[in-house]
Every structure is written in structure tokens, then in C-alpha cells.
Write a structure and sequence with these properties.
Bound molecules: zinc ion
Largest sheet: 4 strands, antiparallel
Strand content: 5-15%
Strand order of the largest sheet: 3-4-5-6
Helix content: 40-55%
Oligomer: single chain
Distance between the termini: 31 Å
Structural class: alpha+beta
Number of helices: 2
Length: 117
């Protein structure tokens, strides 16, 4: 498989996300290996993946023939829990993550304005 490549929006360098060593789990940010700028995966992208994962889980639960509403909810939660990693790997291959400069969540409403930097 082709390695996934991120492009730094600050310095424009391409890099392999596997070489990123500076990660901050709390802030969900990481540093560019070239310019050390704090970057993040677009929150919109993360939400899209979560939404797709949930939708796929619903389809699997439906296909499996779970017709009890309570059981259906539990099946979706369970499948989503088990499949989220797998789904995110597949989706990342189809739609590469959008990398943007790190911004705390409450300031990141301006999603489209960052495109032309
Ligand atoms: Zn950079």
C-alpha cells in the first residue's frame, strides 16, 4: 500500500505521519517534523470519519438482522467500537486527512478561510 503523506500547511513540506514524534493527545495536535509548527487533523474530518463509522455500524447491525430496538443500539455501539479503527484506516485511504494549523476547538469555526494560506 502507498504510504499516507501529510502536507504541512505552514511550510508546504510533505511528510510521512509515521515520522511524527511530537504528539499531544490532550490537545490532539502534533508538530511538523520540518518547521515544528503545531498542526492538527481537521475537526470536521474527524467528525466525518466518526459519522461514517456510525453509519456503517448501523448497516452491519441491520444486515445482521437485529430487530429489537434496544439490541440494535447495543449492536451498533459494539460494532462501532470494534470497527472504528478499521473504518478510519479504510476511509483515510479514500479521503486523505485534511491537515490544518492547530487551533483550539473553540476558535476553529473559521474552517474555509485557512485554505489559501
Ligand atoms: Zn511545516
Amino acid at each position: 500500500m502507498k504510504p499516507m503523506i501529510f502536507k504541512c500547511p505552514a511550510c508546504g513540506e510533505d511528510f510521512d505521519p509515521r515520522v511524527v514524534t511530537t504528539r499531544d493527545r490532550e490537545e490532539r495536535s502534533f508538530s511538523c517534523p520540518f518547521c515544528q509548527e503545531k498542526l492538527q487533523i481537521s475537526p470536521l474530518y474527524t467528525k466525518t470519519i466518526a459519522g461514517m463509522s456510525l453509519a456503517i455500524s448501523c448497516v452491519i447491525a441491520y444486515r445482521a438482522g437485529v430487530d429489537d430496538p434496544f439490541g440494535f443500539v447495543w449492536a451498533v455501539i459494539l460494532i462501532n467500537f470494534l470497527a472504528a479503527q478499521l473504518i478510519s484506516i479504510i476511509v483515510r485511504r479514500i479521503v486523505p486527512p485534511k491537515i490544518e494549523l492547530y487551533a483550539p476547538q473553540f476558535l476553529s469555526l473559521n474552517l474555509s478561510g485557512r485554505e489559501k494560506q
